[in-house]
Inverse folding.
């Protein structure tokens, strides 16, 4: 079984990865909007 410190470390890593994915999704949406604007 995982100890408490190990779980806290994994939870912190998970939270940071989710944060990076949110920023990446927003960045992709902005890039898509710019490309669509340039094409039209």
């Amino acid at each position: 079984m995982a100890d408490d410190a190990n779980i806290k470390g994994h939870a912190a890593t998970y939270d940071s990865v989710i944060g990076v994915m949110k920023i990446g999704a927003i960045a992709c949406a902005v890039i898509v909007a710019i490309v669509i604007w340039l094409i039209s």
Observations:
- The helical segments are 4-39.
- The chain has a mean pLDDT of 91.
- The radius of gyration is 17 Å.
